[in-house]
Each structure stands twice: as C-alpha cells, then as structure tokens.
Design a protein that fits this description.
It contains 6 helices and 8 strands; from the N terminus they run ααβαααβαββββββ. By secondary structure, the chain is an alpha+beta fold. A 4-stranded antiparallel β-sheet has the order 4-5-7-8, covered by helices on one side. Strands 1-2 form a two-stranded parallel sheet. A two-stranded antiparallel ribbon has the order 3-6. The longest helix is centred in the first third of the chain and has 20 residues. It starts with a helix and ends with a strand.
Length: 174
C-alpha cells in the first residue's frame, strides 16, 4: 500500500513539474524583431524611400564620437526609467549584432544605401528625392515597451529630436 502511494506521489510530482514551462528569453532575437518593427514604422511615418545602412556602433558610442550630447547615458536612463548605468549597458549590449531586416523593402521601393556610396549619391539628387534616413540602433527598456530612436537625414546639419515610441495595442506609437 505504501509503495503504491509512493509511486502515485512521484507521478503527481512529475506531472506537476513537467507542466511548468519556463519562458525562454532570447534577448538578441527579441531585440532584432522589435528594432526592425520600429525602424519600419519610422520609414513609414517619414515617407522615406531610402535608409542608410545601420551603423555597427551603438547610439551612445556615436554620440560620444560626435560629442552631440554630453551625459547621454543619464538622459537615456531617465527617459527609459532605468535603475542605473549597468542596466543601460546591458540593454545596449543586446544591440551588438543587430541585422536590418530588408524583407518587404522591394515591395515598398525602399533602398538600403551603403555608407561608402554616400559621396556618389550626393551628386545625384534624383536617387533619393525625399532624402536618406539615417537611423542609429534603437534602445529599448527591459520589457520592450518603450524605445528611443535617434535618426536624421544624410547631408543635413541638424539632427532630429529622438523619437520615443511606446508599444500599445500591438503597434508602436509616438
């Protein structure tokens, strides 16, 4: 009798724990998916047909090189409601291997412009009549609900203000 109860107890424990599924987290895959969604939304909003290839450096690295906004880290921490610099660095590191998904670009007549071809394109204003959108890698909060996108247009001296999006009802909204 005790043996039957022990076997039954083991079976119940096995069933209980086998139904507990851990949510697998793939931050780089999530980042690529969400970043591409936001970039496509930005292209749509800007009615732009050309995008410059995405730089390999992070938004923070680019701002430090160009000396655009001193203390950019503190601004990002505040805007994304992060705890500290370590949390920001963790979120930025997820973007290291970002790949722009160009699926659907041909249907929308969107051209990806290589960085090394910019000089030649500057001579041909008809190639991208609405301009060439330059997007830096977006930075998300830890839940992928809020994102900051830094963008501008090639050959423009002024940069655009950051676009801040929130994911609501299955769509990215400013």
């Amino acid at each position: 009798m005790i043996r039957q109860i022990s076997i039954l107890g083991c079976l119940l424990l096995f069933l209980l724990f086998s139904n507990c599924k851990q949510k697998k987290i793939h931050p780089k895959l999530d980042y690529n998916t969400k970043a591409n969604e936001v970039i496509k939304q930005l292209l749509k909003e800007e009615s732009c047909q050309c995008i410059l290839e995405i730089p390999t450096k992070s938004l923070i690295e680019i701002h430090k090189i160009e000396d655009l906004k001193p203390g950019i880290e503190n601004v990002l921490i505040e805007k994304l409601h992060l705890k500290n610099r370590k949390e920001l660095d963790s979120l930025v590191s997820v973007s290291n291997n970002f790949v722009l998904d160009t699926t659907g670009f041909k249907q929308g007549n969107i051209k990806v412009v290589a960085l090394d071809s910019l000089r030649e394109l500057a001579k041909d204003p008809n190639y991208c009549p609405k301009g060439i959108l330059c997007v830096r890698k977006p930075i998300f909060d830890k839940n992928y609900q809020n994102v900051i996108v830094d963008y501008g247009y090639a050959f423009m001296c002024l940069s655009s203000p950051w676009a801040i999006y929130r994911f609501e009802n299955g769509k990215w909204k400013r």
